[in-house]
Amino acid sequence: MCDLNYHELHVVKIVVDLIMETALNNPFFGDTYADLVVLLARKWQKVTVNDTVIDFRAALLTACQNDFGEQIDAEIKDEGKRKRLVNNVLFIGKLFCKGLLPEKIMHMCIQQLMACAMSSHSEQEVEALCKLINTVGKELDHPASPAVPTYFEKLTKLSKDLEMARLRFLILDLIELRENNWKP
Known about the structure:
By secondary structure, this protein is mainly alpha-helical. It has helices at 9-25, 30-43, 56-73, 79-97, 103-120, 123-140, 147-161, 165-179, and strands at 47-49, 52-54.
């Protein structure tokens, strides 16, 4: 795959679409897809062809951001679309853990999901929030980041407000994971 002609924008778009679809449909292999992205991002550096900048990494991150934005803005009643939000968040978390996203972006995703979860108590946002923090929490939870304790204060409050036991237990499991220094 690394030998494809990535100097053509349509090739990069096709590869990004394929990676996104397979990663979101097969979350079990999220680490593998994130490793593939790391490899391609190193191999396919940013190039300019006919005044068009072609950047694989930026194209993939934009696709993740667009999908996240579409899912978070929509009220999702369809189980498949709910899973897509959760799987996208997991993939974004894996990309962060591989060093492809800055910490600031992760905090923005968490804050956006937290705001939605706190206001709507929506199953999709609470589940996505818990899965994202579970994926990236260990890397974000350091003394230089005062945001993580705030997230857990809000999660504790949210767990008391939720009616669905499954969501309460997702949050309680996450709190326990942090208390155990992110060791399951």
